[in-house]
Write a structure and sequence with these properties.
Elements: E1 4-10, H1 16-29, E2 34-38, H2 44-54, H3 63-87, E3 91-95, H4 98-108, H5 113-124, E4 131-136, H6 139-149, H7 160-176, E5 181-185, H8 190-205
Parallel strand pairs: 1-3, 1-4, 2-3, 4-5
Helix pairs in contact: 1-8, 2-3, 3-5, 4-5, 4-7
Bound molecules: thymidine-5'-phosphate (TMP).
Thymidine-5'-phosphate is lined by residues 12, 39-40, 70, 95-96, 100-101, 104-105, 155.
Amino acid sequence: MAGHFITFEGIEGSGKTTQIARLGRYLKTKGYPVLTTREPGGTPIGDKIRSILLNGGNKAMDARTELLLYLASRAQHLNEVILPALTEGKIILCDRFTDATVVYQGYGRKIPLREVTRLCRFASLGLQPHLTILLDIDVPCGLARLAGRGKIDRLDRETQSFHAAIRRGYLRLAKAEPRRIVVISSKDDPDRVASKIEEAVDAYIS
Ligand code: TMP
């Protein structure tokens, strides 16, 4: 396929949204066709699934229900958005993908990693990101940024130890796949973080 599939990952409050928008502008200025999208969501059906997943009232949601909803959103996103954009040669900047499922549902919810990985492969037809930017920040800093935003959803309400397990899970994945997953500290000022991301993406594309 002609395009490039770049994903962004990190704990809550790691600054993904800001940095994806900045990288999108940077790449467009250089003349690349860019598509920015996110999970869960990215399609009309996926957005409906997203609102179920993030609804603070859905406290009764079982971990397996949650896993399958993330994967349902992904299957739709893959067919409707990601695969067509890759075929058209676009650079896709996607806010979260399979790594988020492995980490949140595997390391966070403790669903056996073997099951999570198998189901992820089914939902994504085995597609892996070409490059993943992992924005790393310590949990208190990330949560403090969230609190500053004033809007807390079902997952943001999890305990510190849940978020710490997520961070550890991400760093473990990065250690296992150092060529695909580039870890960038997002504690620095946003301009420095943006230039480190641009450096990593330039090195990958060239
Ligand atoms: P966001 O806040 O980055 O938009 O992500 C929404 C929430 O969904 C976030 O708490 C992480 C969580 N999530 C999972 O638990 N599993 C997944 O597979 C994905 C894509 C997100």
